[in-house]
Amino acid sequence: MNIWDKTILGLASGFGLGFFAPFAPGTFGSLPGVALAYVVAVLPLWLQLPAALGFTLLAVGVCDRAEKLLGIKDDGRITADEWMLFPIAVLGLPLAEIPWWGMLAFFAVVRAIDIVKPWPCRQLQRIPGGRGIVIDDFVANLYALAVNWIIFCLLFSGKFDII
Questions:
Q1: Mind giving me the DSSP string for 104-134?
Q2: Which residue segment(s) compose the domain that 40 sits in?
Q3: % of the chain exceeding 90 in pLDDT
Q4: Exposed, middle or buried: residue 18 (CB in 10 Å: 0-12, 13-18, 19+)?
């Protein structure tokens, strides 16, 4: 295995978390997405959107190559679809202003929706390769975005001008 393939597997596994998690590799492997979300959140919304889409496209390629390297369809150790897409679930939210437990709630929402896989997420996983690995998480993160905005409005909207 060459250095490029090792790099892909490192990215695909959430910097190794997907490989070495004692349980729930998808949850542990999602953790780098929290840091990525904070980085994306400092951008204005008009740049957050293309950044989130760029990470989505990058995740397709990374997941596709990792799946080929590991030889297992949608291997649970592949978590780039979780962590690279996490910023979608918090688009437009003022993360730097929200207490740590708010991010914990947003993270829990994303994980719950990814585990439950509401329609059409589960069906979309049937698409082959990296596209199938990523598309269900893309849709799940859109659901999570709606729920997270509701949470934000209920818990924090009195502290911020929403619009």
A1: HHHHHHHHHHHHH-TTTHHHHTTS-HHHHHH
A2: 3-159
A3: 77
A4: buried
The predicted-structure confidence for 94-147, as pLDDT tens digits, reads as follows: 999 999 999 999 999 999 999 999 999 889 988 999 999 999 999 999 999 999
- Rg (alpha carbons) of the chain, rounded to whole number: 16
pLDDT tens, residue by residue, 65-76 = 999 999 888 888
Identify the residue whose tokens are 């596709």. Answer: 64
Cβ distance 79 to 13 under 8 Å? yes
Q: What is the pLDDT of residues 81-91, one digit of tens each?
A: 999 999 999 99
Choose among 75, 56, 85: nearest CA to 129: 75
**Which residue blocks in the chain are alpha helix, DSSP H?**
3-12, 17-20, 25-41, 45-70, 80-83, 100-116, 121-124, 129-155
Q: Give SS3 for 98.
A: coil
| Number of domains, the chain | 1
Q: Are 87 and 137 spatial neighbours (Cβ–Cβ below 8 Å)?
A: no
